[in-house]
Amino acid sequence: MKIYKRILVVFFIVAFVISTNAAEIKVVQGKGYANTVWYNLVDDNMSSADWKQWDIMFLVKGQNAAIHINDAANVKLWEVVGAKIDDFGKAIDTTGLTSNPDKFKEWHNSDSTWAIGAFNCGLNGFDGHGDFGWGSYNMSTHSITGTKLFIIKDVSNNYYQIKIDDLTGGTFYFQYKSLDGKIEKSVEFKKSSVAPKSFGYFSLSNPDAKFNFEPDNWSLVFGKYIAQVTDNQGNKQPYPVNGVRHNIGYRAVQIYTDEPMTEKAPTELSQYSTKITTIGHEWKKLDANMQWVIPNDRVYFVLTPDKEVYRLVFKAFTGSSTGEITFEKTKENVEVVSVDETNYISLTLAPNVLNSGQPIHLVYSSDKNITGNIDIVDILGNKYYSTTTDFKSTNFLRLNPILPKGLYFVKVTINGTPKVLKLIVQ
After folding, report:
1. How far is the CA of 14 from the CAs of 6, 266, 310, in angstroms?
2. What is the pLDDT of residues 219-278, one digit of tens each?
3. Which terminus in the chain has less CB density within 10 A, N or C?
4. CA angle, 270 as apex, 365 and 258 as ends, to 5°?
């Protein structure tokens, strides 16, 4: 595993934007927003599918344990509060399912990150605490083991109790049973079965179905989802909207301006947000006559994983009658001159899987002396090692912490910016 950190010394910057390849793009969801549409900024390729085909969506790209529900199709998920995962299969009194949150806690997909679906109960254990909502990281097996029992309502209004048993070796193991006891299934869902896509899809009523509608490469997805919308009292409430979310690895920024077609694209990474609903649903609004209008005071810039920047200016929206969205897309050529980029540091663990008692070798390459902090923590956030060191010319550091078996994160912080390497002690 290798991570590169570039430290830029900027003596003088002249930044300018040259706009090329302007194109008008029309996305058609159909009447009632019947389809989800995936769009690729680079080649304008589009794919669409009826969003009522699936119930559960697994995030399969990268190191993730997120499980989403199809909230566009009104799929609902409730945690059975106080129940244990071993209670699966027992009869559940569903009195108060939709009205008693002390007994049944409803969960929604995050509208900020793909890493948290409804099953994750607002948590991403990779943030350091090891709690993924549906389950927790097991230090002995290096898997995520289920801890919660849920009730799910599918796209056809069928109700099931459901538990996620494990995420082990890239495979989700789960079971579900209809509340009337007539249907019971045990399922293995392999991430590799749908790679290199971002997500894998599953239907509770049609478990043998294979879904291949999501393209391997896409930038934006147009469709319905549940957003956290601020009400008149200033509180966040889940509300169904139709809008735009960007894919994993992309970033975006919204800029208010009187000149959306000539506004310069930002030139610093920190100005672009990883929030997947940065474009979201508020690029359109209803006027006094309840007609959709497009505000002309904003522009969106999307940054791809390959560091290409695209300008998006929305032009028209027909609403639910035909579900047509029209925007102008322009590829931006952002040039930055007179920047010294020669100073960088590369980091890797060699190896990153060790036996208990072996030293850790942190291999690095640097053009000059750089001071950094090194911390080693487990997935629960417990700190096992901490030191400050000088990274000199090409070399390596030998670290000798006493670590029990488990998954750890080696965090190297330079100039306030952390980089994290994964370490397994077996």
Report:
1. 20, 13, 20
2. 999 999 999 998 888 888 999 999 999 999 899 999 999 999 999 999 888 888 999 999
3. C
4. 150
Spatial CB neighbours of 223, under 8 Å, sequence gap ≥ 6: 29, 33, 35, 36, 37, 51, 72, 242, 243
Q: What pairing do the DSSP bridges indicate for beta strands 344-349 and 2-6? A: antiparallel
CA distance 19 to 257: 17
Residue 83 DSSP label: -
d(CA 168, CA 118) in angstroms, rounded, equals 20
Q: How confident is the model at residue 398 (pLDDT cuts 50, 70, 90)?
A: confident
Q: How many CB atoms lie within 10 A of CB 403?
A: 19
- Do residues 84 and 98 lie in contact, with contact meaning Cβ atoms separated by under 8 Å? no
Contact 180, 135 (CB under 8 A): no
Beta bridge partners of 106: 78
Round the CA-based radius of gyration of the chain to a whole number and report it: 24
Strand partners, 223: 243
β-pairing, 360-366 vs 2-6, is: unpaired
Single-letter amino acid, residue 255: I
pLDDT over 50 (residue 320)? yes
For residue 358, give the DSSP letter: P
Query: Concatenated DSSP letters for 224-271?
Result: EEEEEEE-TTS-EEEEEEEEEEEPTT-EEEEEE-S-TTTPPPP-SGGG
Burial class of 258 by CB neighbour count within 10 A (0 to 12, 13 to 18, 19+): exposed
- Three-class DSSP category at 33: helix
